[in-house]
Specification:
The chain is 57% helix and 23% strand. The chain is α+β, with helices and mostly antiparallel strands. The longest helix is centred in the N-terminal third of the chain and has 37 residues.
């Protein structure tokens, strides 16, 4: 008789243990499934590789810069144009130009191909304005400031070249 009671208890314990294991597996499975549902793939996941390549291409293009005319030639053209209009032109010293170019290098990487040389012009206001307009059509030049006082004007500029 004790044998049948022990067998019943053993069967009941195995049955309840199986239910407990099944319940634990279901809860664990639900938790894993819920965690997987939280993980979302970004909408642009398939295009990330091409986006990286196009961004790298843009970076290279920006570093290389556009093809600019020779800086020395641009300076000569601006000087000839200024002489034609009777405008005084003053260029900053060669030392300052070289120092600025040294600062443009980071280690062995030159992050811009363009070089700049600054200066100023003085003369008749009308002729300075015409010179400014014509020089911008002739060479890559940036005018930083323009001051007109009566019939005279002066301007600060920067010529960009390679």
């Amino acid at each position: 008789m004790s044998n049948s009671i022990g067998a019943i208890n053993f069967k009941e314990e195995v049955k309840s243990s199986l239910w407990l294991v099944l319940l634990v597996v279901l809860v664990f499975g639900y938790l894993v499934y819920a965690e997987q549902q939280k993980r979302r793939v970004p909408a642009d996941f398939d295009t990330i590789g091409s986006n990286i390549q196009s961004t790298q291409k843009k970076i290279v293009e920006l570093i290389e810069g556009e093809n600019l005319p020779d800086l020395e030639r641009s300076l000569k053209e601006v000087q000839v144009l200024a002489e034609g209009f009777g405008i005084r032109i003053q260029l900053e010293g060669h030392k300052k130009y070289l120092e600025e170019q040294k600062r443009r290098n980071i280690g062995d990487l030159e992050y811009a191909r363009s070089h700049r040389w600054s200066g100023g012009i003085d003369g008749n206001a009308r002729e300075v304005l015409i010179f400014a307009r014509m020089s911008q059509q002739l060479v890559p030049i940036e005018f930083n400031s323009l001051r007109i006082s009566g019939n005279t004007a002066n301007a600060k500029f920067t010529i960009v070249g390679s």
